[in-house]
């Protein structure tokens, strides 16, 4: 295989000036076993105490290429990454292209990147690769940008369409992405003398209307900022985002979120953190009791959407919130107060303990605000060479409000345990 690739590269036409070709193959194997007592999906009908156990798997194979023409940065970069993911023993699984892009570097920090690519910015709350999930998140589009030592500006644009709609205009439904179009601007300013990093993000999401006859398009906007103050032994983060516009049913949007986290690292072995998140919710939220029907009328959408971020990193490891939907599709919002500590007895081993107090943000018409308490413990060991093993256990004591909102069983003590193996070796690399 290697001899064949070297032969192909040697046959490439030579341009004026010295050229260097870099090529490598990376792999990403991840397998995670999960055990749950207590469901996290709305409409769960499992009997009290039912146990769920399953294995999830993912395999990625990525090929990277770089072309240097005498400059310090490559003129051209290419990346193609295929992905297979699914549940062990399932009848169907997903074989997709996770990444497939080309990047031109024009010099002095300017670049253009075209194709399927993940978007990952700041703490990944708004845009993230969601690497915890088996599928991850990537987008088809073009990114224009400038990456300097203190200033970074990225402009991303996407327009989605299904091949089956060639004769049906530009109506979009049932595609890979939940949106028809996306425009996003991200600006980051690093102030090393403070030290402080400030980011601003502005997005416009184009959503297709619910009926093809109308062919209406609605635009949702978001604007916000992220700050990271990181002096020695301390890390302070703060974020605020505001959402506006109209959703796909033409309802106006008036939602926001704010969050902050303080982290203290007295030694290389210890780190302590405390934080709070507030995500606005739909007012007068209510869920009918099991066996009943009904819907609360909403004239304005006030529930904040975390759109395309790495959601597992926030709002509790059990992923009850902003991953599975509430009944009716609306949300009462969330308050998340948390504290945690990480200990590294040796460089390769880390142990993490965290606590979350969770409550709704909006006032509920048929329940109280508190949702419950969640305790998480996890450990990870790095064997080196891209090989790691991690495991964790989460316990949640839910309130009656949790039972009402999630329509889960009456059992309010929920358990989740997992163990994950990951290997990311680079098994081929050469330069010509």
Summarize the helices and strands and which ones pair or pack.
Blueprint: H1 2-10, E1 20-37, E2 51-68, E3 76-87, E4 94-107, E5 110-117, E6 139-147, E7 151-159, E8 181-191, E9 196-208, E10 217-229, E11 234-245, E12 255-264, E13 270-279, E14 334-346, E15 349-359, E16 370-384, E17 387-398, H2 400-406, E18 413-423, E19 426-431
Antiparallel strand pairs: 1-2, 1-18, 1-19, 2-3, 3-4, 4-5, 5-6, 6-7, 7-8, 8-9, 9-10, 10-11, 11-12, 12-13, 13-14, 14-15, 15-16, 16-17, 17-18
Provide a brief overview of the structure.
The chain has 432 residues and is mostly beta strands. Helix content is 4%, strand content 52%. It has an 18-stranded antiparallel β-barrel.
Key terms:
mainly beta; Porin; 2 helices; 432 residues
Describe the structure.
This protein has 432 residues and is mainly beta. It has a single domain (19-164, 172-431), classed as Porin, CATH 2.40.160. Helices cover 4% and strands 52% of the residues. The chain is built from two helices and 19 strands. It has helices at 2-10, 400-406; strands spanning 20-37, 51-68, 76-87, 94-107, 110-117, 139-147, 151-159, 181-191, 196-208, 217-229, 234-245, 255-264, 270-279, 334-346, 349-359, 370-384, 387-398, 413-423, 426-431. It has an 18-stranded antiparallel beta barrel. The two termini are 16 Å apart.
Number of helices: 2
What is the string of helix and strand elements? Answer: HEEEEEEEEEEEEEEEEEHEE
Question: How much strand?
Answer: over 45%
Mean pLDDT: 87
| Regions with little confidence, pLDDT below 50 for 5+ residues | 11-16, 41-47
- Most strands sheet: 18 strands, antiparallel, barrel
CATH-defined architecture = Beta Barrel
CATH topology: Porin
Distance between the termini: 16 Å
Rg is 24 Å
How would the global form be characterised? globular
Task: Work out the helicity level.
Answer: under 10%
CATH class: Mainly Beta
């Amino acid at each position: 295989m290697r001899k064949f690739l070297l032969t192909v590269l040697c046959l490439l036409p030579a341009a004026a000036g010295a050229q260097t070709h870099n090529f490598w193959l990376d792999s990403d194997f991840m397998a995670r076993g999960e055990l749950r007592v207590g469901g996290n999906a709305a409409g769960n009908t499992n009997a009290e105490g039912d146990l769920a156990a399953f294995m999830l798997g993912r395999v990625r194979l990525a090929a990277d290429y770089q072309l240097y023409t005498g400059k310090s940065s490559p003129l051209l970069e290419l990346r193609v990454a295929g992905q297979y993911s699914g549940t062990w023993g399932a009848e169907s699984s997903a074989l997709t292209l996770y990444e497939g892009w080309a990047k031109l570097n024009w010099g002095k920090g300017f670049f253009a990147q075209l194709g399927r690519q993940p978007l990952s910015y700041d703490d990944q709350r708004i845009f993230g690769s969601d690497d915890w999930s088996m599928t991850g998140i990537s987008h088809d589009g073009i990114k224009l940008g400038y990456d300097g030592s203190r200033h970074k500006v990225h402009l991303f644009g996407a327009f989605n369409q299904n091949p089956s709609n060639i004769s049906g205009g530009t109506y979009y439904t049932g595609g890979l992405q939940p949106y028809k179009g996306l425009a996003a601007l991200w600006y980051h300013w690093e102030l090393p003398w403070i030290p402080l990093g400030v980011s601003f993000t502005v997005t416009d999401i184009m959503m297709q209307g619910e009926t093809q006859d109308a062919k209406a398009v609605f635009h949702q906007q978001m604007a916000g900022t992220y700050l990271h103050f990181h002096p020695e032994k301390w890390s302070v983060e703060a974020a605020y985002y505001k959402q506006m516009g109209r959703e796909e049913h033409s309802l106006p949007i008036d939602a926001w979120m704010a969050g902050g986290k303080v982290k203290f690292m007295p030694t290389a072995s210890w780190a302590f953190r405390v934080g709070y998140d507030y995500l606005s919710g739909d007012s007068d939220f209510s869920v009918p009791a099991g066996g009943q029907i009904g819907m609360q009328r909403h004239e304005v959408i006030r529930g904040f959407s975390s759109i395309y971020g790495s959601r597992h990193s926030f709002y509790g490891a059990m992923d009850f919130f902003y991953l599975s939907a509430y009944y009716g599709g609306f949300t009462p919002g969330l308050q998340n107060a948390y504290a945690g500590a990480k200990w590294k007895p040796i460089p390769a081993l880390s142990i993490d303990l965290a606590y979350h107090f969770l409550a709704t943000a909006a006032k509920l018409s048929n329940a109280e605000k508190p949702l419950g308490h969640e305790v998480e413990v996890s450990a990870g060991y790095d064997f080196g060479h891209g090989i790691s093993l991690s495991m964790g256990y989460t316990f949640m004591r839910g309130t009656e409000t949790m039972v009402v909102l999630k329509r889960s069983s009456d059992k309010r003590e929920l358990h989740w345990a997992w163990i994950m193996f990951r290997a990311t070796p680079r098994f081929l690399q050469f330069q010509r």
